[in-house]
Amino acid sequence: MAVTKMPLSKAITASLRTAMEADPKVVVMGEDVGKLGGVFRVTDGLQKDFGEERVIDTPLAESGIIGTAIGLALRGYRPVAEIQFDGFVFPAYDQIVTQLAKMHARALGKVKLPVVIRIPYGGGIGAVEHHSESPEALFAHVAGLKCVSPANASDAYWMLQQAIQSDDPVLFFEPKRRYWDKGEVDTQAIPAPLHKAQVVREGGDLTLAAYGPMVKVCLDAAAAASEEGRSLEVVDLRSISPIDFDTVQASAEKTGRLVVVHEAPVFFGAGAEIAARITERSFYHLEAPVLRVGGFHSPYPPSRVEEEYLPGLDRVLDAVDRALAY
Fold first, then answer.
1. β-strand 170-175 against 198-201: which pairing, if any?
2. Using CB atoms within 10 A of its CB, is residue 75 exposed (0-12), middle (13-18) or buried (19+)?
3. 8 A C-beta contact, residue 138 and residue 176
4. How many Å apart are CA 21 and CA 162, to the nearest integer?
5. 317 neighbors 222 (Cβ within 8 angstroms)
6. What are the tens digits of pLDDT across the range 20-36?
7. 131 in active site
8. How far apart are CA 233 and CA 221, in angstroms?
9. Is 197 helix (H, G, I), strand (E, B) or coil?
């Protein structure tokens, strides 16, 4: 058993290294990913070991990065493109939505686009504007794209492996406020399916469903609630598109109550889709309406007030209280 404890960011580094060693067609590209090793040092050492032709420092042009990645994929490569920060993805939005997402269908299935786009996302690091956004719902809405987000080091390692091996384009949202959280990674394990949600804490009174940076918040909320005699189940969604509704439904029907938590604004967020689907599927099993906790419907604020903007323990526990009051 090759079990190592490492930060989430280094699990991504190890995953990239493993993928590049296994397949010479895997290339890494992005702004400052080579010599610098990325602004978060996630790609540190890869250019030294694999060369400048496989770890490519690109110009500061996100549309060009994704356009080039699409071209490489059409020629048989498996590019892993890094968008330096979440808010920088929008110059590439046209390439992602009108080209990357649609080429497979446009070619009647004859063309595959095995492109992974790594996007460090979310707040909690005291960054300036355009460096703390959560745009995942904008991409999850687009048919032809898969969107996933690991919450721990083990999932970061294995889910990136699976994303790189996929023949479909995958947006890999990395919760940058969790980059330094350590966890055990077993590099010889048999991973769960990429789009399968996981129950990470068993409970009987209420289900908390989250992904990425909010899974830890929900686990902390469940621990705090247990001190008051409340038993909360926590489901790590892992995948935002597609969503494993079956696992969420089973948990919600078991507990009778569901609260969905994400860092992105509540308005038109992933939580809205989950609330609608679970209400449709499990209406007669629910003891309370499905509640949602998330960011506010406003531009991301200055860093000095981001803790008031971000969903935290208090807001999650308030939703728990409201759901249990029914």
1. unpaired
2. exposed
3. no
4. 15
5. no
6. 999 999 999 999 999 99
7. yes
8. 10
9. coil
pTM above 0.85, yes or no: yes
* CA triple 164-114-60, angle to 5 deg: 90
**Are residues 230 and 268 in contact, defined by beta-carbon separation less than 8 angstroms?**
no
Options 104, 130, 131, 195, the catalytic residue: 131
In whole angstroms, what is the distance from residue 302 CA to residue 319 CA? 26
| pLDDT single digits (tens) 170-202 | 999 999 999 999 999 999 999 999 999 999 999
The upper half-sphere exposure of residue 194, i.e. CA atoms within 13 Å in the direction of its Cβ, equals 21
Task: State the Cα–Cα distance between residues 200 and 266, nearest whole angstrom.
Answer: 23
C-alpha–C-alpha distance, residues 154 and 63, integer Å? 31
Q: Is 326 exposed, middle or buried (0-12, 13-18, 19+ CB in 10 A)?
A: exposed
Give the count of beta carbons closer than 10 Å to the beta carbon of residue 246.
11
Over pLDDT 90: what percentage of the chain?
98
State how far the Cα of 33 lies from the Cα of 221, in Å rounded to an integer.
Answer: 36
User: String of b and e for 11-44 (b: at least 16 CB within 10 Å)?
Assistant: bbbbbbbbbbeeeebbbbbbbebbeebbbbebbe
Question: Is 144 in contact with 171 (CB distance < 8 Å)?
Answer: no
How far the first Cα of the chain sits from its last, in Å, is 47
Q: Which residue has the tokens 């994704």?
A: 66
- Could you give the residue ranges of the DSSP H alpha helices within the chain? 8-22, 46-50, 62-74, 93-94, 103-106, 136-140, 153-165, 214-226, 245-255, 270-282, 306-309, 313-324
Preceding omega of 213 cis (within 30 degrees of 0)? no
Residue pair 261/217 in contact (Cβ under 8 Å)? The answer is yes
High-pLDDT (> 70) share of the chain, %: 100
Cα–Cα distance, 100 to 139 (Å, whole number): 11
